[in-house]
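The record is passed on directly below:
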Amino acid sequence: MGKQVVVLGAGIVGVCCALELLRRGMSVTLVDRQEPGRETSLGNAGVIARSSLMPFNHPGLWAQLPRLLKNDTVQFRYRWNYLAKNLGWATRFLLNARPSVFRETVAALDGLIRVSAPEHLRLLGEAGALHRLRDTGWMLLYRSEQAWNGSELARRTFAQYDVPAQALNAAEVAEVEPALSPIFPRALWIQGSYSVDDPHEVTAAYADLFRRRGGAFTQMAAGAIRRDGQRWTIQGGHDSASLSADRLVVALGPWSKSLLKTAGIDLPLAFERGYHMHYSGLEGASLSRPVHDTGGGYVLSPMARGLRLTTGVELDACEAPARPEQLDLAEARAREAFPLDRRLDEHAWLGRRPTLPDSRPMIGQAPRHPGLWLALGHQHIGFSTAPGTARILGELMCEEGATARHRAFRPERFLASA
């Protein structure tokens, strides 16, 4: 097929895919309704961590389910009518927590993250953004010995996949992060991992690198896609503008679902929404790395703008109104752990994390739609896995024999091939 490609979606996944395909000699146009990195990629915790191989739907989820379904935790909340309309997705999500699928997912995500980390380092250097990188890892904090014991599956999985980690007691936590309150008897310091101080600026730097190397960026809202002969046409959402290309890559994150419906593809995608807010620290209190308070249900990450508090999961429709109560609860728990000062943002930021039933992204050509390629469904770990996704997509689009190596991400696992 021809080498003219349109990549829809200028988040971290789409930008990395555009860079990789450009590197492989294709003529690439990147398309988004906003400037690169202004949507889902703007609001994450900035972590590039090997520990992200643990999916939310793991075998321990069944024991947690009665508590989570009360719908009053900081970690997980849901809208009843949304869950009722998506019981099929929820059932598949729970079924994929069984041990056999969990093991397959962990192995697949581990491989994806292992590829992504060195690619991030390369791109950060080439984009002139290495100053945004920290190599201090991140920490998982536990508020009780019971919570620590309940994390045994995660720790065992990290050891199995050689994720560097150091167990800390209360005194060691205080030594590593002295600004934290002494409420954590246990912690796990994930080492050999990275974080950045502004995910949006990193995405924007990658997009600038793409432009400097000859890639084109078009700001346009994609309303529909269709196949015309041997080419794909992208129709603008609110005007008569359109683009066409030999091949089309859909990397629109949560908005992939509605767009792909215009091509007759029903994507089993749900939206794990989340919020963030920036804060100052009292009397200059700070952190040296992101920390995840597993009992508090939030991540607190040092950013260029201040300390970013990101919440857990809210299951709701993609464009449903914001419900910042979850952020308020997370803030209250965070104030127990750290001397937060005032809020620095006028409004809470709301993002949507696109999740497939097995917590793996979908990377490959859409069945029965030649020339239509998918790179979507990265749930909470798009920032950690974007460069690896791009590498896999490039291999699949340009090389023979790559399909077998990347079966865990094949679209056919959810989309009919006949």
Summary: The first helix runs from residue 12 to 23. The two ends are 22 Å apart (CA to CA). The longest strand covers residues 270-281. The mean pLDDT is 96.
